[in-house]
UniProtKB/TrEMBL annotation:
Coiled-coil positions: none
Protein task: Repressor involved in the biosynthesis of the osmoprotectant glycine betaine. It represses transcription of the choline transporter BetT and the genes of BetAB involved in the synthesis of glycine betaine. Repressor involved in choline regulation of the bet genes.
Span of domain HTH tetR-type: 8-68
Region (Disordered): 199-218
GO biological process: glycine betaine biosynthetic process from choline; negative regulation of DNA-templated transcription
Keywords recorded for this protein, A-Z: DNA-binding, Repressor, Transcription, Transcription regulation
Residues within the DNA-binding region(s): 31-50
Metabolic or biological pathway: Amine and polyamine biosynthesis; betaine biosynthesis via choline pathway [regulation]
GO MF: DNA-binding transcription factor activity; transcription cis-regulatory region binding
Protein name from the UniProt record: HTH-type transcriptional regulator BetI
Organism: Cobetia amphilecti
Length: 218
């Protein structure tokens, strides 16, 4: 874990420098020396506060994840009502916020995903982030559908968000945020409409008449 005591401005400066170095040269060649050069500091400062490149990568991803949580929570807090559809759209919008789709952040996310398969601290961050997204989506879908259906809908939306982001990031023309949001919105509309229709059908279906009881004669 990074040491405490570094000024927030300098810390943010080093995190930005890390993303710039990854954007410029990829994770493998984003050396401490390159990062230090971008930040205008000595390599000793990075080693002292972060223990090296791995610690700085972890701190960088923690900051990106903090920005992601803020982007989602601020949108949900601004909603005037508790409508499920609106809150699900707020989660989608937060995941495609500008703080998550810039070129430097996108490349850092890709590097993080790849590295999380080999580095335990990063794997923990990825697991926590994934569980948080699924849990939040499931809690929202659960307001209007049974638990098993809510879990499936949440897993599907999480996969769609990640998939749209990944394909857009790898596209040479870049991520079309509006299109990605629209496709994710359509998935939410489909799930909510499908469940509403199923609920209405269950309510409107006539009850079967009780079987007649034939009178027996003794």
């Amino acid at each position: 874990m990074p040491k405490v005591g570094m000024e927030p401005i300098r810390r943010r400066q080093l995190i930005q420098a890390t993303m710039q170095a990854i954007d410029e040269a990829g994770l493998a060649d984003a050396t401490v020396a390159r990062i230090a050069r971008h930040a205008g500091v000595s390599t000793g400062i990075i080693s002292h506060y972060f223990g090296g490149k791995d610690g700085l990568m972890e701190a960088t991803m923690r900051q990106i994840l903090t920005d992601l949580r803020s982007a989602v929570s601020e949108r949900r807090a601004a909603l005037a009502d508790d409508d499920v559809r609106s809150h699900l759209r707020a989660v989608i919008d937060g995941n495609f916020d500008r703080s998550q789709v810039s070129q430097s952040v996108s490349k850092t996310w890709l590097a993080f995903w790849a590295s999380s398969m080999h580095r335990i601290p990063l794997e923990r961050l990825q697991r926590v982030n994934d569980r948080r997204l699924i849990s939040n989506l499931c809690a929202l879908f659960r307001r209007c559908m049974p638990l098993n259906e809510a879990r499936d809908a949440a897993a599907g939306l999480a996969a769609l968000i990640d998939g749209l982001w990944l394909r857009g990031t790898l596209d040479p023309t870049g991520l079309d945020v509006e299109r990605a949001r629209r496709l994710a919105y359509e998935y939410v509309d489909y799930q909510l409409t499908r469940h509403m229709a199923a609920s209405l059908n269950a309510t409107d279906s006539p009850t079967s008449p009780e079987p007649s009881k034939e009178r027996t004669h003794g």
